[in-house]
Design a protein that fits this description.
- The chain is of the alpha+beta class and 176 residues long.
- It has one domain: Jelly Rolls.
- Helices cover 24% and strands 38% of the residues.
- It has 4 helices and 11 strands.
- The strands form 3 sheets. The protein has a 5-stranded antiparallel beta sheet.
- Helix 1 runs antiparallel to helix 2.
- The termini are far apart.
- The relative contact order is 0.21.
- The structure holds fe (ii) ion.
Length: 176
Amino acid sequence: MSVDTIVAQLRAAAAGKTPIKDVRTIVETLVADPERAANTFGDPGEDVILFEDETVSIWYCHFHPGMSVPAHDHQVSGTIGVFRGRERNDFFEADPSGGLRKSSDVFLGPGDTLSFGPSAIHSVSCVSETPCNGLHVYLGPLTTVERTLFDIDKGAEMPFDDENYDRLMASDRFTA
Ligand SMILES: [Fe+2]
């Protein structure tokens, strides 16, 4: 199956009556054969937005070894399927005493799929010695919704923009 076909299937699923379930089924089926999925997408070596409109955003994601994406929300539901490498997702929830506290962690390797709701907050780290690649599908226009970044250690939250993202990415604790 080509990338174009996969994108077309996901677009149809996202516009259908049961988008969360149907998108997940497509992603699960795709990464069930991780080697084939990896061959299909090749190795661009960076994030690629394959498609975005009001109903769905489809990303090829690339995390290099040791890379950590700071904690963030999405405002839309998402499904992640991994076909190369291994990533750790740390999920956070509101702490009654203020700020956020870690609620769980989920490790994803080739063949694994994870879905989360619009209010989920997570950070993602590539924990393999090779890059981690996967398909990320969000049920909305991810680049235009107003999202939030979180500095967990400082208990601070801020708009998700390039400046805040780069600053949090550059701090030592996220690259250790
Ligand atoms: Fe995310």
